[in-house]
Amino acid sequence: MPRHTAELLNQLQHADGVLVSVDSVQGSGPREVGAWMAVFPQTLVNTIGGGHLEFQAITQARAWMSRAVSETPLSSSTHEDSAFTARYALGPALGQCCGGVVHLKFERISAADAPALQQRLLANGQPLALFGGGHVGRALVNILSSLPYNVQWVDSRDEIFPAQLPPNVMCENSDPVHAAVADLPSGASVLIMSFSHAEDLDVVAACLKRQRQQGDLKFVGLIGSKTKWATFRHRLEAKGFTANELAFVTCPIGVNGIAGKEPEVIAVAVAAQLLQQR
After folding, report:
1. Are the beta carbons of 213 and 243 closer than 8 angstroms?
2. Model confidence over 102-150: pLDDT tens digits?
3. With 0-12 CB in 10 A as exposed, 13-18 as middle and 19+ as buried, what is 277?
4. 83, 104, 120 — which closes off a domain?
5. In the chain, which end has fewer C-beta atoms inside a 10 angstrom radius, N or C?
6. Is-contact 151 171, C-beta < 8 A?
7. Model-level pTM?
8. Domain range for residue 185?
9. What angle do CA 68, 70, 75 make, to 5 degrees?
10. What gap in Å lies between CA 226 and CA 230, rounded to an integer?
11. Which of 160, 121, 140 is nearest to 19 (CA)?
12. Would strands 149-155 and 169-173 be described as parallel, antiparallel, or unpaired?
């Protein structure tokens, strides 16, 4: 689960709150359906877009927490004991230039709801397999901790993983490393950046075999230069992979126009490329 989900679960150990999520959007709105924030008496976790909409939602959530909910011209609501929905017309009522209509769902949450909330919010993450626990891999894990991905971090060296991990990252020691490809969830994106070119080649080949048989990987990206990919391409062709199959692999990885070879710079470029695939 991303970092915001972990913050939510941590806050629930100290106080009850209200989960506010975007239930539907008509026209233009500041956030998409499913976006959420958690409102607690003294703090907030995450955002539904900021501005007057968020301000009014926070006010209404805290009023509800204190059982002092009152309807205002800004919203129309349907209440239940544990949840209600509210309609917000952004343009005329809130002065936001989006101009659409947003329905927000308000749900009371407590520590008892933590397991179900974790599963619910985790389900929104896209599966991502990261092969390689080196400098770029660590930088990527740090960035991905706040993005909607569930990361399976794989390396043949068990001791390579840090002791403290983001909550949306699960580590796996796999030797041989490419054996982990068979168990990846359908729809996974794959990033390959191990310490060894030989391991990289094995993982690429395993991904291509899986794609030939199942066709269910979303993206396969390999760190390296054009020269590295030219060498890999020749070796993979010798293994029987066609030009069309090889075209599925992206190498080098990262969006164009971001210069620099520092691990953090590469990680930002790769994360941006992943978001383009969503």
Report:
1. no
2. 999 999 999 999 888 887 877 778 999 999 999 999 999 999 988 889 9
3. exposed
4. 120
5. C
6. no
7. 0.72
8. 125-277
9. 140
10. 6
11. 121
12. parallel
